[in-house]
Design brief:
Elements: H1 3-25, H2 28-62, E1 73-77, H3 80-85, H4 91-95, E2 104-109, E3 115-121, E4 126-127, H5 130-140, E5 147-154, E6 157-163
Parallel strand pairs: 2-6
Antiparallel strand pairs: 1-5, 2-3, 3-4, 5-6
């Protein structure tokens, strides 16, 4: 944890303690103000993590021997709703700066070898291509709570596979 992350955590911890005190006293006005403050602190924490992740990627461009091709691995826990609607969503990965909205990718499904292009849409933080996601879910036998992983093999080239819980990050 970086110094800035630690500072945010300390202020958030203090805020949470003040929320507990306000709740014990029944001070609804203070609870509202402190809850808004806690929400802002959580947003700041996510922003800091995203910036730090992006900075590490840029540093790989300038480090000796760095290629700038920092490959990513994005685990996603699939919900029943995602399966029902053929969605693959990236909300947490977008918040953490691991992937960008409108990022385009060519995805190879494992083990079938099917390939399809897609991109991350801002609306729903999801992949654009829903039909192929549905086919993947059915062919891989994905169920509620399973983990699938998108792994970048080279820039804009990805593999998609279901992983067993013991191999999930």
């Amino acid at each position: 944890m970086t110094t800035l992350q630690n500072d945010i955590k300390n202020v958030l911890d203090e805020t949470m303690a003040r929320i507990a005190d306000a709740a014990a006293k029944g001070d609804v006005k203070a609870l509202g103000q402190l809850a808004a403050r806690a929400t802002k602190l959580e947003d700041m924490k996510r922003t800091v993590v995203g910036i730090e992740t992006a900075l590490k990627e840029f540093q790989s461009l300038t480090s000796p021997g760095g290629t700038g091709n920092t490959l990513r691995r994005l685990p996603i826990r699939v919900s029943e709703g995602m399966i029902r609607q053929n969605l693959l969503t990236f909300t947490e990965h977008i918040k953490r700066g691991r992937i960008q909205v409108e990022e385009e990718m060519m995805i190879e499904v494992r083990p079938t070898g099917a390939r399809f292009p897609s991109k991350v849409l801002q609306n729903g933080n999801r992949l654009q291509e829903r039909g192929e996601i549905g086919r993947f879910y059915r062919s891989a036998g994905v169920q509620d709570g399973d983990i699938v992983v998108l792994t970048e093999t080279k820039p804009n080239e990805w593999t998609l596979e279901k992983v067993s819980p013991d191999k999930a990050p």
